[in-house]
Amino acid sequence: VATRSTKQKCLVTGGAGFLGKHLVDQLAGSGAYEVTVFDIRDTGDTRVMTIVGDLRDPIQVDKACEGLDVVFHCATAAPSAANVSNKRLMHDVNVKGTQHIVDACIKHGVPKLVYTSSASVVFEGRSLYNADESTPYAARPMDYYTETKILGEKAILAANGKGKLATVALRPSGIFGEGDPLLVPIAVEKAKQGKMKYIIGSGDNLMDYTYVGNVAQAHIQAGEALIPGSRIAGKAYFISNDDPQPF
Ligand code: NAD
What we know:
It contains six helices and eleven strands.
């Protein structure tokens, strides 16, 4: 007897990355989702189907978005020292690639698109007090990566209501947790080099850090809440642990 799967079909772009792996773990572990990953790297995760593909190729993206219930768009060109000044790469992956996702979702009638943005979209290098979602985008973003995150978020939010699509953007701050390739490893490396012994400024600056498991959970909850007419549709939300740490 054939039974129809009641699992929601979802796509996780960047599912081989730091956040993406945690999101895939939680989605697959819940038993409620049939998970496909779209990434330029293979995940090696046998619980899920992996499409090794490139966001810069609209045809690959279009094919990957057929017949889905929800897309979690987490992929980014990594803002490593080598990439951060590579404007072409950042723009092609984070802006054009995001537009390819939006276009494919609208074309295929995907109802839900959750985008991983960044808290840095409102940061201009000066302290922010009581900032919330009404804080405007940075007129002078910190770097080109952040500029592409702003452009990506704008494209995602502008797509809300087009065809059957509802969209939401989540803005985590610095993400830490198991598998972190950057934040803690770089801090440890700098400490080993003796470069953590001085403080620039007053030393009482605070910075939000968000646990990766919480960021992943926020994505799933946002996807679940994104039903037609949802009040979160077309909006962006900061994702915080609510306990800023000295920076
Ligand atoms: P990551 O570099 O670990 O993962 C990104 C994934 O995207 C990688 O697996 C990579 O292979 C994939 N990718 C890169 N280019 C691609 C392409 N052209 N086509 C398909 N896949 C491609 O990054 P992460 O830290 O997991 O970040 C995930 C998301 O969270 C990003 O959107 C990032 O902007 C956002 N974010 C991260 C942090 C942080 O502290 N890590 C903070 C705020 C926001």
